[in-house]
Amino acid sequence: MFLRSLRRLLVAAVSVVAFSSYAGQDCGFIPTSSVNEAFAEFGPWRPMVGGAVGACSFASDPRAAPNSLSVMQQFKSSKAEANRVYDAMRQGLVGNVAAKNVRDVKALGDRAFRYETTTAGEKASRMVSITSQKGPLVMTVLLSLQRPVTDADVQAATKLGELALLGANDATTQREASTCPWLDAGGLKRLFGGRRHEVQVHGEYSCMASDARARVLVVSVLPVRDEGALKAMLSKDCQSREVPELGAGAMLTFACKKGNPRAEASFVQNGRMFRLTWTSASAEPREEEKAALIELANGARALQAAR
Predict the structure, then answer these.
(1) Has domain 2-168 been given CATH number 2.20.25?
(2) Which of 120, 167, 247, 284 is deepest in the core (most CB within 10 A)?
């Protein structure tokens, strides 16, 4: 559970570097000025993934080696559900890594811990994550630096984490965190076959919907200049076909030889490339699921066209 969440943040951190020519919106729960104050050594910082809620990523001064700060908010349906997620994250770590790498973070209360990672040959960690739970919210901060992380860095990152926890019990924030601007409820209901599912917003460029059967839909949005970017990013180990109803260059990929069984619909609209990836547990997506995915993508395309 924790490693999956950490991988999402790592993807966000990598995106900060890969798409450093694009600036994101301001972060709705952590001001850029606070990041600059916390880590002035690497400033000026700029938001690369922003938005009102869910996730934010910041990149350091582009004239120097890249440093990154990413924050993810997971709003659950109840405090009890958040308890379960937090406990699974911590227990999963303790059972898989050296205990010395996992320590309490008392500044964030009784339900908070930090985890430091090192690579081969490193004596000190250059990356630290801090996870905390407050009410129905589970929050993780990921700090990646070009030098070893110090206790002062952890304290500064902890203070930024406090800002991300402020909206834990705010009804408006919780509603925004579960409302993806590109997904309509009817389309999601058809894709999940009418079963209960949960939607989470991860900043301005990503949303995720999932259910108890480990079926997951991930929506990712990237700035692009033309439709040619679609084919450049297609998985070479998957079968693919064109989807004319989604516009010029739109594609559906499926029957992939590597990774989890999945289907992905991708298209470009208003200078943004959309990728809707559906993973149906351990089974290859059925034809009706592919059709529902395309229908959902068509709805996302219409919503983006209207923006």
Answers:
(1) no
(2) 167
**Tokens representing residue 140 in the block:** 């993780």
Count CB atoms within 10 A of the CB of residue 88. 12
210-214 long-range contacts, CB within 8 A, separation 24+: 213/281, 214/281
- Same fold flag, 2-168 and 179-305: yes
Q: Tell me the per-residue pLDDT of 256-296, one tens digit each, with 9 for 90 and over.
A: 998 889 999 999 999 899 999 999 878 999 999 999 999 99
CA distance 278 to 281: 9
In the chain, domain spans? 2-168, 179-305
Q: Which CATH class is domain 179-305?
A: alpha beta
**Which among 83, 92, 91 has a CA at the least distance from the CA of 111?**
83
Cα gap 64→50, rounded to integer Å:
22
